């Protein structure tokens, strides 16, 4: 039967879980209420999952209970599947295993502010209110990013106008969610991958100049002085030239008195990634040593398609384990997977998450549970 993932059966990873960890405190879950406002159609509905009747959890373990016990935010990025009545397992899995939630796209500029004259908070509110109802912390993602911008932003021609538009956007969003969202990715991916890792060309850099970053953080802080404000980026997980550039960026911000409280490391990886070799822990530690919080904010680990899947699943589990260990060793504030199931992932082909297409936990799930329980 399908109650245990075939790969799990073959891996010794499962044994300590089934033997050692039966967490009575695990939340029963409970479906999410449909949002008050209409939500976009749900093209990501997984027919295979939709036909599944409610099944007993494939594991007695609740990652959420383990994370709660360690004071770690353990999150997942969510999309419209959360409100799909044909796929209740999504909300059930989310509520059982995660104490934190990120909107995968709904809180981006184009998601909230496509029309310059008015914010559209309906879908994001539905996600946030559902999370709050389920006792989950929300990470706000993301206020200022070169991607996911509505066309009107590109029509702006002067520094003053774009600066004001950016400040208005940040102020409007942070103010709206002030009582429910206390962690924000304020600026996302501002450092480029080009040699020397200068700031990435964007309307903000091009028109406002490099101080758009400081100004975005100042606006967010003014709108909610209690919120934790993060800089977030990818390919910065280990010690490398790009993470050096982010380190210098945030060190400069701190020196200038800019209100920044944390750095997010996306950790979009594949099974070739060597967490120890890349010195992820040493990298996270140097940011902690600046007095900043750190989180792994968008973790997914793609399988390499040409290789046998069973070995890849074990390798994937090891990358998840090593990442979480590095995170816990520096007392990181959070660990967020970029999606719930492989089917819902933005990189579904790489099967990068800890639940498979039909919500069964993968070896990576067991690895996280073991690491949290250690
Ligand atoms: C991705 C979403 O997962 C996709 O659905 C969307 O089409 C594009 O954005 N870095 C980020 C995230 O900070 O916001 C991105 O999310 C993935 C890369």
TrEMBL record:
Highest taxon above the source species: Bacteria
Group of enzyme by EC: hydrolase
Keyword Hydrolase: yes
Location of the region described as Disordered in the Swiss-Prot/TrEMBL record: 28-48
Signal peptide as annotated in the record: 1-28
Catalytic activity, as annotated: Endohydrolysis of (1->4)-beta-D-xylosidic linkages in xylans
Keyword Hydrolase among record annotations: yes
Keywords assigned by UniProt, alphabetized: Carbohydrate metabolism, Glycosidase, Hydrolase, Polysaccharide degradation, Signal, Xylan degradation
GH10 domain: residues covered: 57-371
Record Pfam families: Glyco_hydro_10
EC id: 3.2.1.8
Family designation: Belongs to the glycosyl hydrolase 10 (cellulase F) family.
Full protein name: Beta-xylanase
